[in-house]
Amino acid sequence: RPSWSYRIFKTSIASPLLADRGKTENTEHKIAISLRAMELQSFLSWLLGLSVVFLSSVPGVLALPGSFSEAHGPDWSKIHSRFASRSQKNSTQDKYLIGTGKADITGPAADIILTGYANLEQVGGGIRQRLFSRAFIIGDVKNPEDRIVYVVLDNLVGDTAIRFGVLDALKGMGSPYSVYGQNNVALAAAHSHSAPGGWNNYLVPQIPCLGFTKESYQPIVDGAVLSIKR
User: Where would you find the membrane-spanning parts of this chain (predicted)?
Assistant: First the structure.
């Protein structure tokens, strides 16, 4: 049996304003499908709400602290006190070695396609603002060799080509830099679409930049390494 809303639609559709009966039947069919979809959505929403209510009443499943007896769950007071004592301990004893460095990675600024928009007409015509690499080093006070370095580049992405180049350069700088490797060097980027292209390790980003460009790649690697060194 059609609902009242369906009957209203049906009455309006069957009016003399619609001369083409084929279009009328087609529109009527679409409306009926839409109404059935709305009814199904309403039923699923009701079923989801019922499921949440049911699961919330089961100890340990979607239940908030205090919604069931302590006999069926953790002792939240002990957990809170444990985190509070740990926080107080960290505020007085946890210290880190921090290092920061910055270096230029601008590279070629004219007659080179910029990266990011895949637009062959986006060709560099000069320098408006220089690009940099910023390195942040965090180390353990008691064991300085236990450290990580996080490098942020003013370009599109922290590509693997740049990462491999940085790791190779650090490896060739001798024992003071042997602490850096695959597990503690991270490269990220500011995601600039106005930096020179042609340094990516993958084919798809290379296509709009007309291939790999050593003149664009090397300044990024050298600048990233210099920022770590500084």
Answer: 43-64
Q: Are 31 and 9 in contact (CB under 8 A)?
A: yes
Inter-CA distances, 182 with 110, 179, 196, Å:
34, 10, 26
Q: In sequence order, which residues have a C-beta less than 8 Å from that of residue 28 and are 6 or more positions away?
A: 9, 10, 13
User: 193: annotated binding-site residue?
Assistant: no
Asked whether the predicted pLDDT for residue 220 surpasses 90, the reply is yes
- Percent share of the chain, pLDDT over 90: 27
CA distance 72 to 172: 59
Q: Is the pLDDT of residue 49 over 90?
A: no
Does residue 215 lie in a domain region?
Answer: yes
| Domain, as residue range, for 196 | 96-229
User: Could you tell me if residue 133 is inside a domain?
Assistant: yes
User: Does some domain include residue 204?
Assistant: yes
Determine how many CB atoms are found less than 10 A away from the CB of residue 116: 18
CB 198 within 8 A of CB 209: yes
CB-based contact 60:72 (threshold 8 Å): yes
Q: Strand ranges (DSSP E) for the chain?
A: 96-104, 110-113, 123-125, 132-140, 147-153, 185-189
Q: Per mean pLDDT, which range of 21-25, 66-70, 100-104, 178-182 is the poorest?
A: 66-70
- On whether residue 111 sits in a domain, the answer given is yes
How many separate domains does the chain show? Answer: 1
SS3 36: helix
